[in-house]
Amino acid sequence: MMAENAFVRLASLAVITVFLHLPRFTSGIHSPQNVKIDAINGTDFLILSWDYQAGANYSKIGVGWYSKYTHSEVGVGPTLAPCNSTKCSYCVYDRRHHTSCHTFNPIYTNSLSIRLDYAAIVTYRVAACSTNESNSCVYAMRRDYTIPPGAPSAVRNVHARPFSSKSVEITWTAPNQTRGTIVTYTVYYKTSDGERKHLLVPPDRYNESKVILSGLKTKTTYTIWMIASTGKKNGEESEKTSVTTYENECESSPCQNNGKCKATGDSYECLTCPATMEGKNCESKYSPNIIELVTAGVYF
């Protein structure tokens, strides 16, 4: 009995070994050639394309993405991909958008959906199959593709206030749609009869969204607007705002606690501070020194 069981186990092992070494039924087809992928309409669609080959009647498609720790992939097939005499193609669409591959092009009767983000890396691979069985498929190598960055929407809430006689402070809010990573903000400014100038501002890592624009003319009105830019595209223009620089440095009331201010060219001086205050801007409480205390008859 033991000998019979051993024979059965050996026979089963032989069958499994033979099955594992059976040839793939590829009917002479090879892996897809010249596989390419392109983003269409921003992040609405990805279109995969590859060379047509006779005998490859079906295709398998895999599209993936990277999360923080893992790589995930969705796939379909073997399926019938639309082909002409030279090319085959397949459509992937962003599942968050109100669209479909069939609406984009009626040749795409089936498709895949994943989340597509600007400047994100996706993976893709295509297999050529001779039948609708997976063991008839030959895969091309998996590749990475970076979806191009888009044009950001308009910078919001652009506000300017006079900071001195020759500078203004500008604040803003980031665009609603960054469509990629914003690498710079551009502040444009001009007078009514002057040339347009600009200042490049890198994004602040603390998201303060604030900059001092200096080197301006005294008591002059400037029109201010901004754009945000990704690595390849400039965004929409923001709404314009206007600001007028101060006539002199005393106009901003730098002397605190009712101190009296005197303009001195490009600067100012607080002439008199209240008896209980001191400092350049009359901002600190007065602290008598030891000599003053002795003179006043105060001893320790």
Automatic annotation (TrEMBL):
SUPFAM superfamilies: EGF/Laminin, Fibronectin type III. Residues 246-283 form the EGF-like domain. InterPro entries: EGF, EGF-like_Ca-bd_dom, FN3_dom, FN3_sf, Ig-like_fold. Disulfide bonds join 273-282. The keyword Signal applies. It holds the Pfam family fn3. The keyword Disulfide bond applies. Residues 154-248 form the Fibronectin type-III domain. Residues 1-28 form the signal peptide. Keywords: Disulfide bond, EGF-like domain, Signal. GO terms for molecular function: calcium ion binding. This is Uncharacterized protein. It comes from Desmophyllum pertusum.
